[in-house]
Amino acid sequence: MKKIPMRRCVATNESLPKKELLRIVKNKEGQVFVDPTGKANGKGAYIKKDHEALKVAKKRGSLARALEVEIPDTIYEEIERVIDGR
After folding, report:
1. N or C end of the chain: smaller count of CB under 10 Å?
2. What is the CATH number of the domain that holds 68?
3. Is residue 1 assigned to a domain?
């Protein structure tokens, strides 16, 4: 049986299979972007693909704390589009 990689959501603190989470990355230049492949270089933080988790992360600043950088609103909008399946 193959081992399923687990990751922790920065908003809800739940350990979930990597496929159920969305990876947000900060690269060496300090750019923040959504990583749909989950393999981009840089410091990564995972968030559950759920509107409630996104709301909690935005309110508490969980993503900003995990990546140690200010998260622009465009990133939150992109995360919302990914959650909606657009």
Report:
1. N
2. 3.30.1230.10
3. no
